[in-house]
Amino acid sequence: MEKVSNPPMYIKNFLWDHQNQPQKGGFFYFTGVVAKQVAREGFSGEMWICLILNNFSFSYNFLIFNIFFYLKNHTMEVHHHSHHPKKWKEYISEFLMLFAAVTLGFFAENLREHQIEKHREIQFLKNIHLDLERDIKEIDKIITYNVQQQLTSEDLTKLYEKGVSNDLPKFYYLVKTLSLRLFFQHSNNGVEQLKNSGGLRLVEDDEIIKQLQMIEIRVANIESMQQNMDQSLIYFRMKWHSILDAVTVHEMNLNYQNSKVFKTSSTRRFEVPTSVRPLHLKSTDDINELVNLGIAPVNSTRFINVQLTELRKECVQLNKLLIQKYGDEF
């Protein structure tokens, strides 16, 4: 808010250069402001000091000064060439003019601050609206990927049932593919801006706040499930590191990075190798343990997809609410 420590010269000429001499003493109380001993600065000086104490912006000060100057000329011109003491009615008239001027500025400034806060509210909610649209797209992408991983785990189970030696290249492919994961990343820039700036109080619609809280709780649950899934994946990767041949794994990694699948697919899958080296097995139970460790993270994706489906509904509902209420402002 713009503050002015000294009045501009043209306003000083308007309000200080009057023929009425300042009255001694006096205390003035206005809305939210106590101006002590301002009567010694003259009647117009009192008004200026009170306005500075009230921290009004200059644009509103100028409006008030013009109103006051008009009232002063039309109600006090009888005293322009007189030095006799003022009557009590004149004091009341001066007080009312001061009170009206300061009150007008007070309400004008409140109106301006309300408009500024409304603009901030709309900007914050617009950012949340954009975050919601990104989340909806991300949710669809993660759900699709998780379903594909579930199909891959079923293929691995069927191959294990038949015997991995019957199609060792496919076994390498399935194990490497299941070691990948794609997690949901929540877009929360708008919500964080809203929280950090204390902007939650600006949101007038309680339903919007309620929906935001529900989404944050749902996201926290999903992130917790994804962390547990990631821990299972670590055990799975550690196990196949000791079973799969390092040369074959290296060749698969190189082919993956150079393949069209890497450049065009969002599912991040490896290609089936054309030739592979034998597995490094220490016991007959190694394959069984490896398959179980590969299935465990995929089972988590089923529960995650359920939560993501509910999260998508909540995001769509909140986004629809924002568009209905603020769509024209976005």
What's the count of strands?
2
Mean pLDDT: 79
Q: Sheet with the most strands?
A: 2 strands, antiparallel
Biggest sheet, spatial arrangement of strands: 1-2
Terminal residue distance: 26 Å
Overall number of domains: 2
Count of helical regions: 10
Question: Could you tell me the radius of gyration in angstroms?
Answer: 37 Å
- Summarize the amount of helix as a percent range: 55-70%
Based on secondary structure, the structural category is mainly alpha
Contiguous low-pLDDT stretches (5 residues minimum) are: 1-5, 10-46, 51-56, 75-80
Shape: rod-shaped
- Helix-strand sequence: HEEHHHHHHHHH
- Beta-strand percentage range: under 5%
Walkthrough of the structure:
- The protein is mostly helical and 330 residues long.
- The chain has two domains: 9-86, no CATH class; 123-326, no CATH class.
- It is built from ten helices and two strands, in the order αββααααααααα.
- It has helices at residues 9-16, 43-53, 58-75, 88-162, 168-178, 189-196, 206-241, 246-258, 260-264, 286-326, and strands at residues 28-30, 33-35.
- Strands 1-2 form a two-stranded antiparallel ribbon.
- The two termini are 26 Å apart.
Q: How are the elements arranged and paired?
A:
Layout: H1 9-16, E1 28-30, E2 33-35, H2 43-53, H3 58-75, H4 88-162, H5 168-178, H6 189-196, H7 206-241, H8 246-258, H9 260-264, H10 286-326
Antiparallel strand pairs: 1-2
Helix pairs in contact: 2-4, 3-4, 4-5, 4-6, 4-10, 7-10
